[in-house]
Amino acid sequence: MINKLKIIPAAAAVLSALFLFSCATAAETGVGAVISGSPTPVYYGTGSGSTSIDAIQQAKKAAVKKAAEDLLGTAAAKAQKSEIEELFTSISDIEPFTVAGSMETLESSQDDGFYINLGVMVNLSVTASELRAADILGGQVDGREGNTYLLPDQAAPRVAKKPDKTETVQPAAAEEKSGGQESVEAPAEQPVYSDVTADELAIINDYLDSLMYMVYFDEDSSADPVLMRTAVVSANRYLKQNGFEYVDLSQIESIKADQRIVYEEETGESVSMIQWIAHKLNADIYIQISLDTSSRAENGNYYGSASALLNCYNASTAEGRGSAVYQTIPPAFSRISEADALSNAVSSAVYNGMQTAVAEAEKQTAEAAARGFKYSLNLMNTPDSKLIRDFEKRLERKVKSVKRISYSPEESVFEVYLIGDIMKLEDVIYDTAENVPGMEGLLLIMQRGSSITFDTGL
Questions:
Q1: In this structure, is the dihedral angle defined by the CA atoms of residues 352, 356, 358 and 361, taken in order, positive or negative?
Q2: 3-state secondary structure of 453
Q3: Can you give the pLDDT at residue 195?
Q4: R_g of the chain computed on alpha carbons
Q5: Count of other CB atoms within 10 angstroms of residue 97
């Protein structure tokens, strides 16, 4: 999460030093008010045109214009409405007002013309400079040079529906699609549970609300590592803006660099290092991104296309939790370079694909949870097989299911599925044992993660 530092007027002299150590900070206006936010906040705009380039430019212009109005303040912007309109009408190239590679498409369509709804990071310094040059002043734009301009990210608009010109594509069929098509899977429907009580449903909903996500790229992919990092950053932006908990990319790379030996000793490389890291960082859902990109240059302009495949897994078991495919349409545009166009395309494809990926991951996770959370139950000292079988049958009535994995006079191992946490399972085991003659002395001797071990006392 972004840390926002509040600065009292006496601290204005050290503003620039604080900015170097913070992702977002606060600035003082000419009248002493404290402004919090970022020098490059995310703003949203829509645009349409006869070409995709025109639509993108108009949408970016709308986003920058809104940021300009917020810099000026409501009263000043209203009083100078015609001047603002004239300024933005005269701007032929909006790219310098935005941060390269930050564009994210929320929706797009192509019917009689092109339409796009996008988000982009606005360079407030450039925007304020143009306002000053046009003698449009107010709010943070007080006419003085050297000011630091800050605004919070604009709230993301709700997208009522996906573009009309889309089609659903399963990941396995991605290679069969022709170029230039955008694929969006419909959001997953809320699962219906026929064998879940109201209390159990509340537990499942609480569990879904607390899911921790971890996103990383396919390490076997031949895609440009820079684009892969862009993909992960874009996915994490989606998670952050929509209130999901997630593991930061820097945490993953720090563990990869520092704990490879520990990973090899603990796992013998029987699982992938990324899955091991996801489990180590308490992630519930791991999303792996694969990319297919292309770019071209035409008349001094640059275009990039990206197809993103997002595969979701249970971080502990590596069981699949759904997937999504998204391909950009129209191609992302840049006046800077093909690399910048590709960065825009990847950012857009992944950001949009995350909506379906997360919805599918939650749906399948909820369906799995409705069958019960999986726990490992170990009973030490089990010499009487009939007694242990009686215990197993009684336990079946109190949980979703029980599966015996192994038996010996020394130890019996079970897989238990229960809707509830490990503490609830402990209580259920004690309640069950009290009703099995001979097992009243059962005691807990160890609990680690989703594994719990008791001594029967036999």
A1: negative
A2: strand
A3: 65
A4: 28
A5: 24
105, 44 in Cβ contact below 8 A? no
- What is the secondary structure of 40-96 as a DSSP string? S-EEEEEEEESSHHHHHHHHHHHHHHHHHHHHH-HHHHHHTHHHHHHHHHH-S--GG
Rounded Cα gap, residues 137 and 73, in angstroms: 10
pLDDT (tens digit, 9 = 90+) per residue, 151-189? 999 988 876 443 333 333 333 333 333 333 333 344 444
Query: How far is the C-alpha of 424 from the C-alpha of 92, rounded, in Å?
Result: 64
Task: Report the alpha-carbon distance of residue 315 to residue 214 in Å, rounded.
Answer: 8
Q: How far apart are CA 429 and CA 414, in angstroms?
A: 12
Q: Are 283 and 212 in contact (CB under 8 A)?
A: yes
User: Any idea which residue has 């009408």 for tokens?
Assistant: 89
| Cβ–Cβ < 8 Å for 415, 376 | yes
Residues of the chain with pLDDT under 70: 1-36, 110-112, 159-195, 267, 269-270
- Which amino acid does the sequence have at 156? A
Bridge partners of 151? 38
The two three-digit tokens of residue 297, written as one number: 């240059």
Q: At what angle do helices 260-267 and 273-280 cross, to 10 degrees?
A: 100
Give the phi and the psi of residue 448 in degrees, each rounded to 5: -140, 115
The Cα–Cα gap between 263 and 277 comes to: 9
Q: Kindly report, residue by residue over 126-152, the tens digit of the pLDDT.
A: 999 999 999 999 999 988 878 889 999
Supply the DSSP string of 195-248, one letter for each residue. S--HHHHHHHHHHHHT-EEEEEE-TT--S-HHHHHHHHHHHHHHHHHTT-EE--
